[in-house]
Amino acid sequence: MSGCPAFEDLSALVDGDLSGNQERQLREHVEKCTPCRAQFDALTTLKRSVGRAYEGEAPSPALRRAVRAGATKRRRQRS
């Protein structure tokens, strides 16, 4: 892996949505990169907080995809 991963990739890592090799590479990077580790930790904390707020009500896969797509679109618009 060259450079830091995109926000979406870190988010997918937190959500457990990556393949074995992709997950391994990202985890190795996050262990060595302080800024990425901080972002990963923040995303993990956010996911736990949201999960506690909605215990018993997991979002559907379609909703998760829609939210992720919206975040990606917004990030591209700002770039």
Describe this structure in words.
The chain is mainly α and about 80 residues long. It has one domain (about 5-79). The chain has 4 helices and no strands. The longest helix is centred in the middle third of the chain and has 20 residues, at about 35-55. The model has no long low-confidence stretch (mean pLDDT about 85).
Mean pLDDT, rounded to whole units? 87
Query: What pattern of helices and strands is seen along the backbone?
Result: HHHH
CA radius of gyration: 13 Å
Uncertain segments are none
Provide a count of the helices: 4
Task: Kindly give the count of domains.
Answer: 1
Report the strand count. 0
Short description:
This protein has helices spanning 7-15, 20-32, 34-53, 61-78. It has 79 residues and is mainly alpha-helical.
Keywords:
mainly alpha; 0% strand; globular; 79 residues
Layout of helices and strands:
Elements: H1 7-15, H2 20-32, H3 34-53, H4 61-78
Helix pairs in contact: 1-3, 2-3
